[in-house]
Write a structure and sequence with these properties.
alpha+beta, Spore Coat Polysaccharide Biosynthesis Protein SpsA, Chain A, Cation-dependent Mannose-6-phosphate Receptor, Chain A, eight-stranded mixed sheet, 30% helix, globular, EC 2.4.1.122, glycoprotein-N-acetylgalactosamine 3-beta-galactosyltransferase activity, membrane, Galactosyltransferase, transmembrane helix
C-alpha cells in the first residue's frame, strides 16, 4: 500500500511538471487567481462600508460594547482612547452623549440623610434623571422639589447571606442599586447608569467627557452602560449569593463583572479618597484627566481653608461653571528672573517654590494626608506620593482661589488666588534667592478649551507674564509647538 501510494503521488507530481500535461494548467491557475481576487475585492468593499457606517457609531453609543466604569477603575471592551477621541469629533451631535442620557443612582441611609442631602444639592440639576435609594422612609419638604433626585426605598435583602465580620450587610442593598433602577422601567433613551454615595460631589459636565467614548471603588462613582446593566440585572441576585464573605458593595459588583467576563480599566478622575486629613497634596497635583468626583467628604478637611465643607464646595463651583474641563488641571512653569518654580492647579490653588524643581517631582502628590488606616505608612497608597518638603527653604507658598469670572470681551477666565497664611509661619531661609513671601496675590488668565480632552492627554502650559514684589500674573493655555516646562 505504501509503495502504491508513493507511485500515485509521483505520477501526479510528474504530470504537473511534464510539458505534455502543462497546457490545461495555466487556464486553471488563471481562473483560480481571478476568483480569489474578485472575492477579496468584494470583501474589502463590504468591510470598509461596515466600518464607516456602523462600527464608529456603535463604539460611541455603546450599543454593542458593554462598559462599566467604577471609581478609579473602568470596565470596558479594549479600545484605544486616543482613537476614540478622534472618532468622537466625527460623530454627529445627535449621537453624542449628554446628561440627558445618564441616570444617577445614589446610595444613602435615613440616618445620615439630613446631612448628606446638602452635598447632593450642590451638584444636582433639575434636568437630570436619578434616584436616591434609602433603607427606610425620610421626611420630605416641598421647598426641596427639584433640588434633589427622586427618593425610593431599596428592596428587602434579608434573604441574602452576609458573612463578613468587619463589614455591614447594607453592602448588599447598595450593590443592587443599578439593577433596581433598571427594573423601574420608567426612563427612555438611557445610555449610562452612574452610581455613587451620598457623600460624593460630582462634576457632572465632566462625566460627558468620559461617556462620549464608547476591584473598583463604588463610593466615588461608577458608571455602567445600558447593555451591561441589562446583563447584570439578569444574573446579579444569583451572583450575590455566591459571595457572602465579601466586604462591600464594590467587591460584589466586581465579582459579578468578572463572571460576565468584562475587564476593568482605570479612570483617574473619580476620586475615591480613601485617605484622611488634608487633600491639598492630591488635588494640587491632579492627574492629567478630567475631575469627575470627590468622595468621603465627611472624613477629609474642606478643600479650602477656614470654611465648612459645604462652603468649600460652593467655592469650587465658581470655576467649575466657567470651565469644568480645566478644573484643577495642573500647569508647571518657572519665574526665571527670581528662580522660582510655579505650580498652578487651575480653579483651586497655586504654589510657589524657591529654586528650580523638576516637573516630574512637582506632578507627584505631596503627602498632606494619611491613609485609610490613619497611619503614616506611605506604602499603603494606590498612587505615587512624595514627602512634604522638610527643607525650610523648599516649603511652598500657597495661594487659594478667592474669585473667578469670565471676561466677555476677551472670552477668557480671570481667576484670583490670594496668599494663605497658616498659623505656622515660613521658617527663615538663608538661600540667596528672592523671597516669595512678599507675594500676596496671583492673577491667572485662561481661555476655556472645549476640546481639551478631545486631544491626546497633555498638561496645559503656564507662562509668567509679570512678576512684581506683591503680585504675579500668569497665562495658562494649550502648549505651543515645541513648548515645554523648562527654565
Amino acid at each position: 500500500m505504501k509503495l502504491a501510494q508513493n507511485n500515485s503521488e509521483k505520477i501526479i507530481w510528474d504530470s504537473m511538471r511534464s510539458p505534455s500535461q502543462g497546457k490545461p494548467f495555466p487556464k486553471l491557475l488563471f481562473w483560480l487567481i481571478l476568483s480569489i481576487t474578485a472575492t477579496y475585492v468584494v470583501y474589502t468593499i463590504k468591510l470598509l462600508s461596515f466600518n464607516h457606517t456602523s462600527c464608529d457609531v456603535d463604539i460611541i453609543t455603546n450599543r454593542h460594547f458593554p462598559v462599566l466604569k467604577l471609581a478609579n477603575v473602568t470596565v470596558s471592551s479594549p479600545q484605544n482612547p486616543t482613537k476614540l477621541r478622534q472618532i468622537r469629533q466625527e460623530i454627529p451631535e445627535k449621537n453624542k452623549t449628554t446628561l440627558d442620557h445618564i441616570v444617577f443612582g445614589i446610595a444613602s441611609s435615613a440616618k445620615l440623610w439630613d446631612k448628606r442631602k446638602e452635598y447632593i444639592k450642590l451638584w444636582w440639576k433639575p434636568r437630570m434623571r436619578g434616584i436616591v435609594w434609602l433603607d427606610s422612609p425620610v421626611k420630605t419638604y416641598e421647598n426641596e422639589t427639584g433640588t434633589l433626585p427622586q427618593l425610593k426605598i431599596s428592596g428587602d435583602t434579608s434573604h441574602f447571606l452576609y458573612k463578613n465580620k468587619k463589614g455591614h450587610r447594607s453592602a448588599i442593598r447598595i450593590s443592587r442599586i443599578v439593577s433596581e433602577t433598571l427594573k423601574l422601567g420608567e426612563m427612555d433613551n438611557v445610555r449610562w447608569f452612574v452610581m455613587g454615595d451620598d457623600d460624593t460631589f460630582f462634576v457632572t459636565d465632566n462625566l460627558n467627557i468620559y461617556f462620549s467614548y464608547g476591584m473598583a471603588y463604588g463610593g466615588a462613582g461608577f458608571a455602567i452602560s445600558y447593555p451591561l446593566a441589562k446583563a447584570l440585572e439578569k444574573v446579579q441576585d444569583r451572583c450575590i449569593q455566591r459571595y457572602p464573605g465579601l466586604y462591600g458593595s464594590d467587591d460584589r459588583m466586581q465579582a459579578c463583572m468578572a463572571e460576565l467576563g468584562v475587564p476593568l480599566t482605570r479612570e483617574l478622575g473619580f476620586h475615591q479618597n480613601d485617605v484622611y486629613g488634608n487633600l491639598f497634596g492630591l488635588l494640587a497635583a491632579h492627574p492629567v484627566t478630567p475631575l469627575v468626583s470627590i468622595h468621603h467628604l465627611d472624613v477629609v478637611e474642606p478643600i479650602f481653608p477656614n470654611v465648612t465643607q459645604i462652603q468649600a464646595l460652593q467655592q469650587l463651583k465658581i470655576p467649575m461653571q466657567l470651565d469644568s474641563a480645566g478644573l484643577m488641571q495642573q500647569s508647571i512653569c518657572y519665574e526665571r528672573t527670581k528662580g522660582w518654580t510655579v505650580s498652578v492647579s487651575w480653579g483651586f490653588a497655586i504654589q510657589i517654590f524657591r529654586g528650580v524643581l523638576s516637573p516630574r517631582e512637582i506632578e507627584m502628590p505631596s503627602r498632606t494626608f494619611l491613609n485609610w488606616y490613619k497611619r503614616a505608612d506611605y506604602t499603603a497608597y494606590a498612587f505615587n506620593t512624595r514627602p512634604v518638603m522638610r527643607n525650610p527653604c523648599l516649603k511652598p507658598f500657597v495661594f487659594y482661589l478667592s474669585r473667578a469670572r469670565m471676561e466677555s470681551h476677551t472670552n477668557q477666565t480671570v481667576s484670583l488666588y490670594t496668599r494663605y497664611r497658616d498659623a505656622v509661619p515660613h521658617p527663615v531661609c538663608k538661600w540667596k534667592i528672592a523671597d516669595p513671601g512678599d507675594v500676596d496675590r496671583v492673577e491667572v488668565y485662561k481661555k476655556p478649551d472645549l476640546h481639551l480632552w478631545d486631544r491626546s492627554p497633555r498638561r496645559n502650559c503656564c507662562r509668567v507674564l509679570s512678576s512684581k514684589k506683591e503680585s504675579m500674573v500668569i497665562d495658562v493655555g494649550v502648549c505651543e509647538e515645541g513648548e515645554i516646562s523648562e527654565v
